[in-house]
Amino acid sequence: MSAYDELMTFQRQTEALAQVAGRLGWDQETMMPPGAAEQRGEELGAMEEMLHARRTAPEVGQWLAAVEDSTLDAVGRAQMRHIRRNYERAVRVPAALAARIARTTSVAYGKWARARADEDFAAFAPVLSEIVALRREEAAHIAGAGDAYDALLQGYEPGATGAEVASLFDDLRPGLVALRAAVLDRPAPDPVSGSFDPAAQMVLSRRLAEVFGYDFDRGRIDKAVHPFSSGSGADVRITTRTAADDPFNCAYSTIHEVGHACYEQGIDAGYALSPLGQGVSLGVHESQSRIYENQLGRSRAFCHWLYGQMRDAFGDLGVTGEEAFYKAVNRVQRGFIRTEADEVQYNLHIMLRFDLERDMARGKLDVADLEEAWNARFAEDFGYPVDKPSNGVLQDVHWAAGLLGYFPTYALGNVYAGCLYLALQDDVADLDGQLARGDLSGATGWLHANVQRFGGLYEPRAVIEQACGFAPSEAPLLGYLEQKFADLYDL
To answer: Which residues are bridge partners to 231 per DSSP?
Structure first.
């Protein structure tokens, strides 16, 4: 075999093992008995040591040096771009450090879940301090003389920098703050009310997943404390959660995770178990989950269809008629939880987390001071105090999982989704008519053809620009939000 063929055979085995490690993580958050946490940490640590050894194996460097990119087609060159970038990143991180991060974050999940249930940040702070220290150490190895936070961010969004993200947020913030103030100054529509059977919510959840194109032959839905999607190719699993007084939590968590899952299921099957066989970045990934959840799932047309589905599932919803239901779905109100936030306020939650984790990564904020910093920033941004840790610093699982640098990708995903929706509306005839019939095939088919099938073939911004025909910016998202909520709130 050629050096390229040998490299790709080796890489396929590495990707397969990474999928096995991912399945261990899925099990940990869904079905693993709580007493297994310490052992699972050892298992995941062992897997990470093996994966790190493969990713940094001398043979990989030799194959990379032997392959002439000019002899490859576009797919081959893209494969090499990913493998080379990942190799150069991995060889800078000591194997023992990579294994320790895996073990520590595995154990931290259970500690976070218990601390969240007990409203006790102090119980979680020691392991979070260890995680932050480990990530700082990792970032120092990767960044060298560069910015530590950029090193972490680029693990999720290749090519992005903290400075660029901060500039984007500076452009987004004034419009969002002004729109939020205007909306909250108007009377809020009535919310849905009642008791919503969790079993019926899960039945509806499955129905919604099918409507949005999720393939249950290659996936499944389970419950988790914090909804997530896991896997790629032929095994892509999602989770959701239920609350007896809030059916939207389950419905829209499901739609959001289906957006992630359909991206992974929609990638060209020929890229399976290769660097191209997964979403190219977390920002592009979030563009799919957010456009499924918001521009499509919270649209007036789709809400009119969903109203009938929810009436069939739950009976009286406490609101009368399709339009009242649409307004309830898009109700802007005071709240603490990022995953439950409306479209107007969601990105403000991300900006808060971005600034805090950037300071932690750079050593400017200690974990001992994190809860106080969170609460002060939240009161400043939202105008009211955090009432308990589970509504504040303990609400998200990301830092427990060691995902420093991840949060900005949510806002990048919203920006990308705004751009994609503008192009989708131009290209899909009678989009609203289809959504009003519960027919998502036109919209999801467009996203599959223009984004999902490419997997990692193109760089993140390039795949969005190619799909839209223009460079991504915050303008389409702000325009969409201002138009939608001006109409909803008669601004």
So the answer is: 236
